[in-house]
Amino acid sequence: MSIQSEITQAIQSFYSPEEYPCLKDQIEVFAREQPFVGKSVLYAAPLTRNTQVALLPVVAGEADITLSWPDIVEPDKAVVALMKRLGIHFYQQVPSNQSFDLIFDCCGKYADYSASLGHIELTRSGLEKYLSQSNTVCLDVDSTVIKSIETTLGTGESLVRAMKHAGFTELAGKRILLFGYGKVGQGICRALLAEQANVDIVELQPGLSPEQSCFIDGSDQALVTEAVQKADFVITATGIKSVIENHYPVSEFINSSAKLINMGGEDEYGEAFPADTVLNGKHTFNFILDDPTLMKFIDPIFALYNECGKLLTQQSYSLGVHLPPDQTVMSVAGRFCQAHGIDMSEWV
């Protein structure tokens, strides 16, 4: 049985093709076009159950695949066992002397590694690493409308699902202090408000807030620490590593009664926080779930991630960070909205 068939068999008891229409179409196209034939590919997205679906088009496209994963997320043991049985190379940390044709990166873990055709970055925190250097070609998936769809609809839902999975089943009336109101923060706020929680938002660069919520000036340390003491949950979603310890007294958080949650791709609390003071050991909290984001929400972003790899095999880009073409983005977004009956005009 082929690698593609083995992975397909492994996922079919968890997902139906209707849950991943974008990736389903992409499997067929990549199998026909084989864009990665003869190409060495490092695929370093979180190694979870639904990542297996994301891998299928790349496998169908005849890539020579090596797997890794971001440090903030532990890999799924069952997935690791399957990949090992299939003979796919994988590393927690790829040796620094290895190079690839393409690197599908997450959290910028492999921003310093050589990729002859270029890198694709999935996250905002990782993108900052690529923006700080000028010797790499990188396609930016995070800044697209598709990432907004995933984070607004998917990440907020998964946080609530993870909180209930962890035993916090009644969120109505709970006081939530949310750090960050970008794409992820907005999705989290939306989901928590739907649960009738009380949400206060801390932003170092305040913007507009929902009517039901309150912004707190992140530069006002006294006001922020007072809010921490009143909170039932503190949730970080800024995309900034160590943002809490770099701006606020650590003891105010550790000694509070609030449950501390990190929803960023990096450790947003910082090294001064022992792992046991933040739920899930400071790792991204929704990764306590077998499906950190529901397949239907993660389908379009992984399809775009893979399409960006195909683009890098077809054309050359100047050094630096680039957005994928609008035509590519809108094609994936349109397929997702069509499949799930979503009004695309809400996002474009």
Automatic annotation (TrEMBL):
Q: Name the InterPro entries on file.
A: Adenosylhomocysteinase-like (IPR000043), Ado_hCys_hydrolase_NAD-bd (IPR015878), NAD(P)-bd_dom_sf (IPR036291)
Cellular component, GO annotation:
cytosol
All residue ranges annotated as the S-adenosyl-L-homocysteine hydrolase NAD binding domain in the record: 151-292
Q: Which GO terms describe its molecular function?
A: adenosylhomocysteinase activity
At the top level, the lineage of the source is: Bacteria
- What processes does the entry annotate via GO biological process terms? S-adenosylmethionine cycle
Q: Which Gene3D superfamilies match?
A: NAD(P)-binding Rossmann-like Domain
Q: Which Pfam families match?
A: AdoHcyase_NAD
Membrane-spanning residues: none
Q: Which SMART domains match?
A: AdoHcyase_NAD
PANTHER family documented for this protein: ADENOSYLHOMOCYSTEINASE
Protein's name in the database: S-adenosyl-L-homocysteine hydrolase NAD binding domain-containing protein
According to its UniProt entry, this protein's organism is: Endozoicomonas montiporae
> Lineage in the entry?
Bacteria, Pseudomonadati, Pseudomonadota, Gammaproteobacteria, Oceanospirillales
